[in-house]
Design the sequence.
């Protein structure tokens, strides 16, 4: 091996064994493994077709959008239980606004986002300034949002609006060149506006977390809030912005969900916050804060999505197996986190005692 | 008066805390290129003075001049911007971030609106190189030893163009080599003209490093000395305001010849940790446990208290053979245990002194017999008076106390259960000379009153001073036994080193 090669391989080993990346690599690895299993078992039924893959995105984009904000909250060491309720409130605003009150959908969406950000900032203020544990603060936010949602309407409202229809119906098809002409591939595969939003949000989230001071402060707070304060970082402001951003993501996820189901319902997305949190956890975000990557969350969402897809392809298994496997995966990742984190922690402690 | 070499002057600093005047008219002066030790017992006001300089505490009176301009730092960041950097005792970095990021977070170099990671990693490596630390700066901080972490926090502190560097107990978690490395760095910085304020409990280090020393006592300035002007003994008595002889005039507890047997351990052990330990202890006897860290002293104590389950051997307490499987069994046999790491295993920081004291007694009485508030108050007041715990009242949170006073509260907790056997694991670590002497005096008093004490300590002089008999441990085994009377440090060290086989009892 030449010295350049050796250096490169050293770098690679360093990269893989770096606990920072270990969790993300595990997520990607497990996703690939499960996808491969599916490919082997149900390849003949079309599991490997691009359509199946694209549908993973289409069917879960709203969870992914919310998971972007949740990732950031989790990295600060917080949690947000209100995301699904806020998303459902957004859906209700849009459904009731456009269909019952006949308000312009753009206004409805802008209003929803405003409300989402304000709710996020409100909960952020409870957490930051009143030192209320995030679990409790966002629980109240959740009840508040569900309550307002039910006040508006207790029935499901189907959305009847041209612009919404147009947005929901907007699709980009995967094409292939056949006899010198572009034709849709068979079976038809497409992505829609929600998928674009999801991917754009993941990219924005990555840039914020990796390339801005604000993003790095988020990690520092999750690592050790007291230290972050003593290092002179703007802890309070950062936390407020994180919860505000998450409120924005919840509202955006609500819009995506409204486009997906084209209705608003006060009981929509019941328990959805746990789907979002588990997607982030499976993506390697540490529940105790300080560790996590947007790309991990991205694969976490996909990993969580591919399991029900596999079960559908199997055809005989009860769909509840999806929940069981998801639960097992969350457990696996939490255990893995414990192992990786305390493993490196213990090493340090032993040198301390020397 | 206008000395251009003076970089920082603090004049007439006063800080009032609820119930106590933490600082009362304290002056402090720091010159360019000097290491200035700030000394005093716990609670003398050193930390308060530093917190005042870094903007954590607000002063009630006084002025701070930095390079001739009056400053009023409002928070640590502000102080840092002014050129005052602090390295705190506890490492205040984020373990989840990389080494490089810990140095640069909050002031990252930016390129085209984005964080310039390459520059961060390059400059951090360069900076640490100056401190002779050669590590991969992209690795998370958690992977490195405390010493390296300490270096990283110093690197962070000095890279911000600091004029004044405050080192608050930087050496408390370092071993000797690491301390020397830190001192090299300090000498470099001093040569570059930085003013360094150095706070430490280790007087040897004070004498090795500092050019001048300022001594505080009870929030007052006691004196400023040049190195070489004062001996260690004089310094200590200045710090505590008493003569040394008076402090260390301790008499070993007298052993009654007819005292009954308290404890007999017969070949007890946990394979792989400690093996084959036998010893006996009389009532009212203070039994010292000496040996290196990790030689099995703590493990033996934990076995007797049931923290780790004994697998071999038998334990006879007060003439009865007993089985101790968990701490509750030990407590029921009237054994009490003060663990080594009081921050982790001992105090419950958010509870008050009163609650911390009655905890163990309440546990023994059981849930169904709660102590009334009146009983609790009486108990707490009794021990606060008896142990001279420095606090305005019993309802102060324990974490607001100094280390020595916290230790006394823990002692009180166990004394309240009126144990027959008290195990103290390093009860005097990290506390100052005066408090140390007080704790030792208390131990001896308790022995005199018939309590048996197992006293584990790394400091040979205090073991010798207090113990009736000394058990020396080596590599998880008992290396030998010595009489406290007439024993010297050399005897113990020889036994630890295994040069001379001790007579086994």
Sequence:
């Amino acid at each position: 091996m030449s010295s350049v090669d050796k250096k490169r391989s050293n770098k690679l080993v360093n990269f893989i064994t770096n606990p920072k990346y270990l969790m993300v690599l595990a997520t990607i690895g497990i996703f690939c493994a499960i996808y491969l299993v599916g490919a082997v078992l149900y390849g003949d039924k079309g599991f490997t077709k691009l359509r199946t893959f694209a549908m993973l995105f289409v069917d879960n984009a709203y969870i992914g959008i919310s998971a972007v904000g949740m990732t950031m909250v989790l990295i600060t060491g917080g949690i947000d239980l209100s995301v699904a309720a806020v998303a459902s409130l957004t859906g209700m605003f849009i459904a009731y606004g456009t269909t019952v009150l006949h308000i312009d959908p753009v206004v409805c969406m802008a209003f929803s986002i405003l409300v989402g950000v304000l709710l996020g900032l409100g909960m952020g203020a409870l957490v930051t300034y009143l030192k209320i544990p995030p679990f409790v603060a966002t629980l109240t936010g959740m009840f508040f949002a569900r309550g307002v949602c039910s006040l508006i309407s207790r029935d499901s409202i189907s959305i009847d609006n041209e612009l919404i229809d147009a947005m929901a119906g907007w699709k980009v098809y995967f094409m292939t060149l056949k006899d010198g002409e572009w034709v849709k591939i068979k079976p038809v595969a497409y992505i829609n506006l929600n998928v674009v939003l999801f991917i754009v949000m993941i990219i924005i989230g990555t840039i914020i977390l990796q390339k801005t001071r604000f993003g790095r402060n988020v990690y520092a707070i999750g690592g050790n809030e007291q230290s972050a304060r003593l290092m002179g970082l703007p802890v309070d402001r950062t936390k407020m912005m994180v919860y505000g951003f998450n409120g924005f993501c919840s509202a955006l996820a609500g819009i995506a969900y409204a486009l997906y189901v084209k209705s608003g319902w006060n009981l929509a997305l019941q328990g959805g916050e746990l789907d979002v949190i588990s997607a982030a956890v499976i993506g390697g975000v540490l529940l105790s804060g300080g560790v996590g990557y947007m790309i991990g969350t991205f694969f976490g969402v996909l990993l969580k999505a591919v399991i029900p897809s596999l079960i559908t392809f199997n055809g005989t298994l009860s769909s509840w197996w999806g929940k069981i496997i998801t639960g097992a995966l969350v457990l696996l990742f939490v255990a893995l986190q414990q192992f990786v984190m305390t493993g490196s922690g213990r090493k340090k402690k032993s040198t301390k005692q020397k | 008066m206008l000395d251009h070499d003076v970089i920082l002057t603090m004049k007439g600093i006063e800080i009032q805390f609820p119930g106590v005047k933490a600082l009362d008219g304290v002056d402090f002066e720091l010159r360019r290129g000097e290491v200035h030790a700030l000394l005093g017992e716990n609670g003398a006001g050193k930390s308060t003075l530093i917190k005042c300089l870094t903007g954590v505490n607000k002063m009630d009176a006084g002025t701070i001049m930095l390079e001739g301009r009056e400053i009023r730092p409002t928070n640590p960041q502000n102080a840092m911007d002014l050129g005052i950097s602090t390295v705190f005792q506890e490492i205040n970095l984020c373990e989840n971030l990389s080494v490089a990021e810990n140095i640069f977070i909050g002031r990252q170099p930016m390129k085209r609106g984005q964080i310039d990671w390459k520059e961060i990693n390059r400059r951090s490596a360069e900076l640490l190189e100056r401190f002779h630390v050669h590590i991969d700066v992209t690795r998370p901080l958690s992977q490195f030893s405390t010493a390296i972490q300490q270096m990283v926090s110093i690197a962070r502190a000095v890279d911000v163009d600091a004029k004044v560097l405050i080192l608050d107990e930087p050496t408390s978690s370092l071993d000797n080599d690491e301390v020397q490395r830190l001192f090299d760095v300090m000498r470099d910085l001093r040569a570059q003209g930085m003013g360094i304020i150095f706070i430490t409990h280790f007087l040897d280090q004070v004498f090795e490093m500092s050019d001048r020393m300022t001594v505080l006592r009870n929030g007052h300035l006691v004196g400023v000395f040049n190195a070489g002007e004062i001996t260690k003994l004089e310094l200590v008595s200045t710090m505590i305001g008493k003569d040394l002889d008076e402090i260390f005039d301790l008499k070993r507890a007298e052993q009654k010849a007819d005292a009954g047997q308290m404890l007999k351990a017969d070949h007890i052990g946990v394979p792989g940790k400690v093996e084959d330990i036998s010893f006996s202890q009389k009532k009212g006897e203070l039994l010292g446990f000496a040996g290196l860290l990790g030689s099995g002293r703590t493990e033996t104590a934990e076995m007797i208290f049931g923290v780790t389950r004994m697998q071999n051997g038998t334990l006879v307490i007060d003439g009865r053979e007993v089985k101790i499987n968990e701490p509750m069994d030990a407590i029921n046999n009237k054994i009490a245990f003060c663990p080594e790491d009081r921050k982790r295993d001992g105090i419950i920081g958010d509870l008050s002194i009163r609650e911390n004291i009655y905890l163990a007694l309440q546990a023994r009485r059981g849930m169904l017999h709660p102590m009334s508030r009146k009983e609790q108050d009486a108990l707490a007041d009794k021990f606060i008076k008896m142990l001279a715990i420095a606090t305005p009242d019993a309802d102060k949170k324990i974490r607001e106390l100094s280390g020595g006073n916290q230790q006394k509260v823990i002692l009180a907790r166990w004394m309240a259960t009126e144990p027959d056997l008290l195990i103290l694991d390093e009860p005097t670590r990290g506390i100052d000379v005066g408090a140390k002497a007080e704790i030792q005096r208390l131990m001896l008093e308790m022995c005199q009153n018939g309590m048996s004490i197992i006293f584990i300590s790394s400091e040979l002089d205090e073991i010798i001073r207090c113990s009736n008999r000394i058990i020396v441990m080596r590599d998880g085994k008992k290396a030998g036994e010595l009489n406290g009377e007439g024993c010297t440090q050399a005897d113990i060290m020889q036994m630890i080193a295994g040069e001379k086989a001790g007579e086994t009892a």
